[in-house]
Structure formats: structure tokens, C-alpha cells
Write a structure and sequence with these properties.
Structural class: mainly alpha
Organism: Casuarius casuarius
Helix content: over 70%
Pfam families: PQ-loop
Keywords: Membrane, Transmembrane, Transmembrane helix
Order of helices and strands: HHHHHHHH
Main location: membrane
Largest sheet: none
Shape: globular
InterPro entries: MannP-dilichol_defect-1, PQ-loop_rpt
Length: 165
């Protein structure tokens, strides 16, 4: 088995990276005052997957250290989402998205099977999120404000969680 110190290092490094994971993306969008190349659909899918995973972890009483990075990333994604809506002139849509996400958050636990089904779809949702972003890049032929550093940090956190889990 893995030494507890290595497991702690993997967890702490993942949380540290997650604390700043979206900052390069946020900085790029803010500096350019544009969300060109960043897919709204991708971000909606990513947020959906993260919210489902977080709700599942909370519902089943998992220890906080197993999912602490999700509230951190969700907060950054929400800020990024607001930036995208603002710079694309769609700020008024923020309220609609907020109602949908909050409503979805509560609907997940109306019946246990809903949460179970949503959790089983999380991998598909995550993959769809990445494909939506790649499709956006392909269509615009411009990486615009997409941050390679953010994607690299995301790859690291995935690898470290796979290793630690």
C-alpha cells in the first residue's frame, strides 16, 4: 500500500493546484476582455458534472478530503462563467443559469435513483465537456483565451487523484 505521507502529498498538491487551476483561464479572459475560443457549452457540462459529483459525495457522507477540490473548482468555474457571459454581452442569462443549477442541485436528491443515474453519467458528461471545448476550438480555428496551463493543471489533478484513489 501507499505510504500515508505520499497519499497526503498527493491530496495536498491536488488541492493546491485546484486552488489556482482556473486562474490562468480567468486572467486570459479578463485581459482580452473576450471569451473567444472558450465554449459556454463545455463550461455548462463541466459545472454539471462537478455539481453532480459534489452532491453525490455530500449525500453519501464521504470525508471532505476526498472531494474538497470540487467546491474550489466550482467557485472558479462560476466566476469564469460570469466572465464569459459578461464579455459576450449575455449577463442577463446568469440568473437563468443560476436557477437551473440550483434547481438541479435540489432535484438530484428527490429520489435516490436520480442521483445514482446522474453519477453514472458523470464520466460521459466530463468527456462531452472536453469534446465541446475541442469542437469550439476547431470551429473558431483560434485557441483564443483557452489556457494551456489550466488544461495542464487539470491533467495533473486527474493523474494525482487516480494515483491517490
Amino acid at each position: 500500500t501507499m505510504a500515508p505521507a505520499l497519499l497526503d502529498l498527493a491530496n495536498w498538491s491536488t488541492w493546491a493546484v485546484c486552488a489556482v487551476i482556473k486562474l490562468p483561464q480567468l486572467a486570459a479572459v479578463r485581459a482580452a476582455r473576450s471569451a473567444r475560443g472558450v465554449s459556454v457549452g463545455s463550461l455548462v457540462l463541466e459545472l454539471t458534472g462537478f455539481l453532480v459529483f459534489l452532491k453525490y459525495q455530500i449525500y453519501y457522507g464521504y470525508p471532505l478530503q476526498t472531494y474538497l477540490e470540487y467546491p474550489i473548482i466550482i467557485a472558479q468555474d462560476v466566476i469564469l462563467f460570469l466572465f464569459i457571459l459578461h464579455f459576450s454581452g449575455n449577463t442577463k442569462q446568469a440568473l437563468l443559469y443560476a436557477v437551473i443549477f440550483v434547481g438541479g442541485w435540489y432535484m438530484l436528491t428527490l429520489q435516490k435513483w436520480i442521483l445514482e443515474l446522474a453519477m453514472n453519467l458523470c464520466t460521459l458528461i466530463s468527456a462531452a465537456s472536453k469534446l465541446a471545448q475541442l469542437r469550439c476550438l476547431w470551429q473558431t480555428k483560434d485557441s483564443g483565451q483557452v489556457s494551456a496551463l489550466t488544461w495542464s493543471m487539470s491533467a495533473y489533478t486527474c493523474a494525482s487523484k487516480l494515483w491517490a484513489t
